């Protein structure tokens, strides 16, 4: 998995644009969760034109795998992209300890 991955992250209110990430590069952003805890960020991924994926990167299924909410503190979610799929964790730890697989790649031929 040495080819770059194109990532597009957006919410209902914010479009963070397209970013192309090389091996070991990262993308990060911050935002304020709304009071109703319905904040939703969505991402699409394209790897070498042969694999794609689209899913919520901050949504109800993901939040339990992120750091717990604390007043006045940012909630962190860490994602790692592997050729085997997409994994999330509440802390940046060596893979695979503490990482939960959330999504697979879709293959295009």
TrEMBL record:
Any one cellular-component term (Gene Ontology): extracellular region
GO biological-process terms attached to the record: rejection of self pollen
Subcellular location per the Swiss-Prot or TrEMBL entry: Secreted
InterPro entries: Self-incomp_S1 (IPR010264)
Entry annotated with the keyword Ion transport: no
Annotated keywords: Secreted, Self-incompatibility, Signal
Main location group: secreted
Similarity section: Belongs to the plant self-incompatibility (S1) protein family.
Name of the protein in question: S-protein homolog
